[in-house]
Automatic annotation (TrEMBL):
Domain HTH hxlR-type: 20-125
Matches recorded under Pfam families: HxlR
Cross-referenced InterPro entries: HTH_HxlR, WH-like_DNA-bd_sf, WH_DNA-bd_sf
Origin: domain of life: Bacteria
Record key words, sorted: DNA-binding, Transcription, Transcription regulation
Protein name, as recorded: Helix-turn-helix transcriptional regulator
Native source organism of the sequence: Lichenicola cladoniae
A Gene Ontology molecular function term of the record: DNA binding
Amino acid sequence: MGNTIRHLKVPIARESRAVCLGPDGAVAHVSRTMKMIQGRWKLPILFRLYADPAMRSSQLRQDLPAVSQKMLTQHLRQLEADRLIERTDFGEKPLRVEYRLSELGRNLLPVLVALRDFSTLQIAE
């Protein structure tokens, strides 16, 4: 296998390839997380929900005017399925639903802020 394998150069606490590869390795976990936030509107939705504790879909639609209702609904459902946001249906007529970050979604904030900081540094250079 030799020195050409890049994942062996990843600094890790243990000298084990399993940390980077395999179904329980770093690649699998990072890929799963990236899939959860992949999508044109998922990050803007998450950042918007970081700013306000709870929002209705109409408020999100106003704050993200370029997103269609279909895409907003689709991304909200996917974020809910991935347990990054919680949907509260008040059971009222007319329909009243609010979205808020779940505990898992709040735990993602430092990662997203680190990505933003990385991007800011790249622009500055």
